[in-house]
Amino acid sequence: MAEFFLFLPQMRLALDTLVARGRAAEAAGFTGLALMDHLAPPLAESQPMHDAMISAAWLLAHTERLKVGHLVLCDAFRHPAVLAAQAVSLDHASRGRFELGIGWGSVPSEFEQFGVMNSDAKGRVTRLGETLEVLAALWTGEVVSYQGEFHHLESAQQRPTPLAPIPILIGGVGAKTLALVAKHAQWWNCPAHRLSHFDEVREGAGKARVSVQEQITFIPSEADRDEITTTAMRRFATSSDKPVVGNASELVEHFAARQEAGIERFYLWFTDFAKPETLAAFGSDVIEALRD
């Protein structure tokens, strides 16, 4: 059966609220939870948002079974040695529940605004490839020397090593990105708006398993369908991916078809911001139905 992850952008959500949502997802049968990673919320720069890695640590500390990761960490925000140590620390603290979702950045203007690095796409992809190589080397616990265009290590060593291989997820469909997926990742996140070309690009991801992120508008009662749908469409009017709207039976059919196509994990972004009652109903009426 496919896995269900809650995608929960930590914008406008207090840490206690994140924990409440995480525990509700855990109780509802979700396998994991993913946060976002930005220096300021895209299109809502004035809104409060907590740090991606600290939020992940907080959630791992306050849940028992959920895997926790990101869609996705921005490579340019962290030196790979810092990221390697953070990931291993979360791996040990959670007894193996941390997953590393990473990409080369989806908001170039953010780089310029905060002075992170050159926002040239080619350079960002190259840097991500080097980061993945450095992570793999440091996680062996052996002495590492590395000379790349962006990263330079001389007789560097980090311990402890991961308890087990830390799963890596990379998203995107560009040829260079897919080459990194095939070489380094256990999971490939295919953008929902590119699923129409899924069969054309699937081979490029190699043996990586497939996930997809989708916005979901869950209709618990037909009497509320119009109101719930209207609200969702208004909230996500600027999104490139329109929400999937449906009641339990409609969503069961939707995800069953996705599974049949070869998708093994769903990152769900609920358009009501994952109210606990929504997560509970989705768990009992959709996840359990698919499991049966």
Please write out the topology.
Layout: E1 3-7, H1 15-28, E2 32-35, H2 52-61, E3 67-70, E4 73-74, H3 80-93, E5 100-103, H4 108-114, H5 121-138, E6 144-147, E7 152-156, E8 168-171, H6 175-184, E9 187-190, H7 198-201, E10 209-218, H8 225-235, E11 244-246, H9 248-260, E12 265-270, H10 276-291
Parallel strand pairs: 1-2, 1-12, 2-3, 4-5, 5-8, 8-9, 9-10, 10-11, 10-12
Antiparallel strand pairs: 6-7
Description:
The chain has two domains: 1-62 and 210-292, no CATH class; 72-207, TIM Barrel (Alpha-Beta Barrel), CATH 3.20.20. It is 40% helix and 19% strand. The protein has ten helices and twelve strands. Strands 1, 2, 3, 4, 5, 8, 9, 10, 11 and 12 form a ten-stranded parallel sheet that branches. It has a two-stranded antiparallel sheet with strand order 6-7. Strand 9 (187-190), helix 7 (198-201) and strand 10 (209-218) form a beta-alpha-beta unit. The radius of gyration is 19 Å and the shape is globular.
Number of helices: 10
Helix residue percentage: 40-55%
The number of domains: 2
Uncertain stretches: none
**Class based on secondary structure composition and strand pairing:** alpha/beta
Q: Radius of gyration, rounded? A: 19 Å
User: What best-fitting shape do the alpha-carbon axes yield?
Assistant: globular
Taken as a percent bin, the fraction of beta residues is 15-25%
| Run of helices and strands | EHEHEEHEHHEEEHEHEHEHEH
User: How many distinct beta strands?
Assistant: 12
Instruction: Please state the average pLDDT score.
Output: 94
Largest sheet: 10 strands, parallel
C-alpha end-to-end distance: 10 Å
